[in-house]
Amino acid sequence: MKKESKALQLFQSLVGKTLDQTPSAAGNWLAGTLKEVSEKHIKVAYTVRAEMCNPAKILHGGIASLMLDDVIGMGNFVAGSEYLMTSINLNVDFLSASQIGEVLEVSAELIRSGSNLNHWEAVIQKDSGKIVAKASSNMIKTHVKLSDLGF
């Protein structure tokens, strides 16, 4: 059986807590609540706030993209790579609107893990199950070791 990474152990200790003390300042501003985490899956809940909305008072596409990208990034962080990985693309489809006060769940799945590239898919869903947005992203390995960054 594979030993769990320190990053995964850390995130498992955060299940049920607000993610406002992570290395991602933008992610901390989102202030999501970690619901589930494993080496290949992560789920975070967010409440749509007024400052997350466009002038029409619906969730801004840029904020939805940030939610998707940040959850994929957290998922990739706990996936067990020795090296920092960074997004090389983020493809987002916006499928329905979300209003102030709605709770959204963002879940991400590791679809393929390679020696240099990880492929993720993610979705934002309302409590009703309606999909707000979906995304895919490729993360590429850098030459920076996570241990050199203090992780």
Automatic annotation (TrEMBL):
<dbReference type="InterPro" id="IPR029069">
    <property type="entry name" value="HotDog_dom_sf"/>
</dbReference>
<dbReference type="InterPro" id="IPR003736">
    <property type="entry name" value="PAAI_dom"/>
</dbReference>
<comment type="similarity">
    <text>Belongs to the thioesterase PaaI family.</text>
</comment>
<dbReference type="GO" id="GO:0061522">
    <property type="term" value="F:1,4-dihydroxy-2-naphthoyl-CoA thioesterase activity"/>
</dbReference>
<feature type="domain" description="Thioesterase">
    <location>
        <begin position="58"/>
        <end position="132"/>
    </location>
</feature>
<dbReference type="GO" id="GO:0005829">
    <property type="term" value="C:cytosol"/>
</dbReference>
<keyword id="KW-0378">Hydrolase</keyword>
<dbReference type="InterPro" id="IPR006683">
    <property type="entry name" value="Thioestr_dom"/>
</dbReference>
<protein>
    <submittedName>
        <fullName>Uncharacterized domain 1-containing protein</fullName>
    </submittedName>
</protein>
<dbReference type="Pfam" id="PF03061">
    <property type="entry name" value="4HBT"/>
</dbReference>
